[in-house]
Amino acid sequence: MKKSSILTSVIGLMFMAGVCCSCHHEAPEEEPLSWLEEETYAGGKLGTTFNSSSSAYEDPTPAVTDVAAFKYGEYLFERNYTINTPPFAGLGPLYIRSSCIACHPGYGHGKRMDRYRADDWGNGYLLVVTDQNDTYVSSLTGMPQTKAVPPFKAPIDESQIQIEWLPYTDEWGNTFPDGETYSLIYPEVHIPASAYYVPLEVGDKTLAYGEEIVRLEGTIGIYGTGLLDAIPDDSLKAQYQKEYDAGATLNPAIWAGSDWAKTYQNAGHPLRFTYALSRGPLQDGPGANAIWNITNVTRGDRRYHYMTATYARVASQDPAVQAEFYKYFPEYNKTGNPETDIYNYLMSRELPAEMSNDDYVNLMVWHRGLAVPAARDLDNPTIQRGRKLFREIGCASCHRPSWTTGSDRFTDPNHFFTTADQRLPRYPNQKIWPYSDMIQHRLFMENDIRTGWCRTTPLWGRGLSAVCTGASDRLHDNRARNVIEAIMWHGNARSDARFSVEKFRTLSKKDRDAIVQFINAI
Questions:
Q1: Number of domains in the chain
Q2: Going by C-beta distance under 8 Å and a sequence separation of 6 or more, which residues neighbour residue 216?
Q3: Range of 334's domain?
Q4: Is position 75 within any domain?
Q5: What is the pLDDT of residues 44-59, one digit of tens each?
Q6: What global pTM score does this model have?
Q7: Chain-centroid distance, C-alpha 187
Q8: Of residues 326, 279, 263, the one with CA closest to residue 455
Q9: What pLDDT is stored for residue 65 in this prediction?
Q10: How does pLDDT run across 121-160, given as a tens digit for each residue?
Q11: Quick count: other Cβ atoms within 10 Å of Cβ 407?
């Protein structure tokens, strides 16, 4: 888009308040005439790249000053980890993937898959295994491992995992009033008893095989996460209060009506990352966590395995593991008793650090430094029409368009990075356009996400997914193959987005397509 086109475009569009779209709607408000140029810079002036090619998710932000550190962090993200090849040494003994990019093809979301194989390119799926009450099976790790290095055996044999995609027909017969049709599918996952290496335990209770529930969760895009981390804590709190006061139903496990019911590590850090809102600051967020638990590579602040005591007990008593253990780990022949040595090795809290501190810093410079692609073609009349309708039917209530970052004095619950640390890029006082209220809502989908609560996914940059990753799949388990399917999965009678879907259905095909084009443009 030409600069002159941006500066001369004039349009007055309303901006709906960020509240639950099924609960409250405000009259349109005119925006400043500068909105078009502002929104083109989706990540603000310090966080936007104008690359729209297949590498659009990979660029550093203008705020990155140490380009060498950024490129080295990228190197760590893209390469496969091994057992003993520096600086990628330390894979296992159990792991989920051997590299970060395996879950994030093209740095984006994982793809919808027909089978579960960790080595299939683009498989960003993680297994979620719970009891009937949505409580995690504690004998497996929260993100169950399906790979192992000799002599160990994976907790779940992934070759036996079965994914079946089933058709779903909604109350409208998958048909719009004007006759246009769409299709909906959802996954069912089955793991036979023979695939489990460990018993299925939830606390002190052991489940019978078949009593567990298995779901899929796909990985999220990682670009722009540094900008989301820079949203002030008090701004997040104000958003919760605003939605609550407007009558929205919020997750009581996180919001208590006038204050947080839960913060990250109960240390005052608001929960803002992952579908389940399980992570707080980015410095102990998905990337900082994943480089450890996905590969099981230890580092200075985590000198222990991502492991359960149940697995350690089972493996230590396995004659096949005992027979081979000292061959692979002769330095752990401490007592001469293989059962004791195997268990102590697996559960040790004082293992050597396999990732150096410098490498970890470089990875976090890269992670915090990934730019957001600029919004595209916002001066196109059809896209402007879609933008207007997006707000009018209430989508912007949960997909809040913009935020303003604060001073970006980032925190780190691990105390690895200090507030004064100058190594990581910062994004102070930037107007950014993620299109998310950063709050969980419920859609009541068939075979829904664990607990039913899911953080509103940022929409920025998703329109480039097909270019960057080779797929356009959406929603937490990639069940939606396009934007229309994603929208219609919001339509359950109890869904927090029901109002918007009802309005969307009544639009003409031309207007529905305009909304889709707008979503793909941002």
A1: 1
A2: 125, 126, 127, 128, 163, 187, 189, 477, 478
A3: 312-347
A4: no
A5: 999 999 999 999 999 9
A6: 0.92
A7: 18
A8: 279
A9: 96
A10: 999 999 999 999 999 999 999 999 999 999 999 999 999 9
A11: 12
